[in-house]
Design goal:
The chain is an alpha/beta fold and 241 residues long. It has helices at 4-13, 21-34, 49-65, 76-84, 122-130, 161-170, 204-212, and strands at 42-45, 70-73, 88-89, 98-103, 107-108, 114-115, 132-140, 152-156, 174-177, 179-180, 183-184, 192-197, 217-220, 222-223, 228-233, 236-240. Mean pLDDT is 93; it is low at 1-18. The structure holds ribulose-5-phosphate.
Length: 241
């Protein structure tokens, strides 16, 4: 039986030299976050390409090193992957309080405010993160910015598309309906996504409150202060908290 350290070395060897830098950085950030997971923990699983690296790493540890965890997934896609890899999946009804949640993000500012929802899963991601004692975010270094400025993904009831778009304009934003393969993107919850561009977001906390107050908004993608952000860089992983 090889030691855990050795197994990690083996896994590291699978980073081929032709793997691009961004993927490499996501991967080392994901691996760094997974080191916080211990047997017996209940774990929230995020959504997106970085979260998938987290899930794959956890699946590896479950299969090869006897890691025993139970998990709640933030999307059908993550749930499918985790299940395929032998991770025990539960619902939030079964596990209302989780030890740790590990997820990616689209942007992280200097105060560790986040924009999430590039994959349209931010509603469940926020619920699972807020049900977890620790919320760990892993990103590649390109996601770190002084000020958030990506369009904010907003999950909206389809019925409320027009009034919510009008309210976003009132707040100075430009709403764009998210499309996928020529039709409206539909979330796992059966709703639409409006990506709202506000330019540089100087006060994310205030914008978060204003967006939450709009009738028809299910959830927006501004997240506040995770426990830690693991940033994958060429030279290694930097942890911000
Ligand atoms: C999905 C998310 C993702 O965490 C975010 O879009 C980052 O994705 P990736 O890891 O693929 O860059 O919020 O809703």
């Amino acid at each position: 039986m090889r030691t855990r350290e050795r197994q990690e070395d083996v896994c590291m060897e699978s980073f081929s030299i032709d793997e691009n830098t961004v993927r490499y950085e996501k991967r080392i950030a994901a691996e760094s976050a997974v080191r916080l997971v211990e047997s017996g923990m209940d774990v929230g699983l995020g959504t997106g390409s970085t979260a998938e690296l987290v899930i794959k790493r956890l699946g590896y540890l479950v299969k090869h090193e006897g890691l025993e965890i139970r998990a709640v997934a933030t999307s059908k896609r993550s749930e499918r992957l985790a299940h395929q890899l032998g991770i025990e999946i539960k619902t939030l009804d079964e596990l209302p309080e989780l030890d740790i949640c590990i997820d990616g993000a689209d942007q992280v500012d200097s105060k560790l405010n986040l924009i999430k929802g590039g994959g349209g899963a931010h509603t469940r991601e926020k619920i699972v993160a807020s049900s977890s004692n620790r919320f760990i975010v892993c990103v590649d270094e390109r996601k770190i910015v002084p000020t958030l400025r990506r369009a904010v993904p907003i999950e909206v009831l389809s019925f409320a598309k027009a009034p919510v778009s009008a309210r976003i304009r009132d707040l100075g934003g430009t709403p764009v309906l998210r499309m996928q393969e020529g039709t409206q993107f539909v979330t796992d919850n059966g709703n639409i996504i409006i990506d709202a561009d506000f330019g540089a977001i100087k006060n994310p906390e205030e914008l978060a409150v204003l967006l939450s107050q709009i009738p028809g908004v299910v959830e927006h993608g501004i997240f506040m202060r995770p426990t830690e952000v693991h940033v994958g860089e060429r030279k290694g992983v930097r942890i911000l908290s």
